Amino acid sequence: MNPWERTKLWSELLSQVRSFFLKRGFTEVVTPVLAPWHNLDPNIKPIKVENGLYLQASPEFFMKKLLIFGAKRIFQIAHAFRDDPVDDLHTKEFLILEWYRVGEDIRAIKRDVEDLVSEVLGRYPPPWDSISLRELFKERLDINLEEAKDKETLLRKIKKAGLKVKDSYSWEELFEAAFLNEIDPYLPKDRAFWLVDYPYPLAASSKCDGFWSTRCEAYVEGVELANGYVELDDPEEQKKRWISRGRESEIDWEYLELLESKGLPPSSGIALGLERLLMLKCRKSSIHEILPFSPLTKRG
Question: Omega into 127 within 30° of 0, i.e. cis?
Answer without folding.
Answer: yes
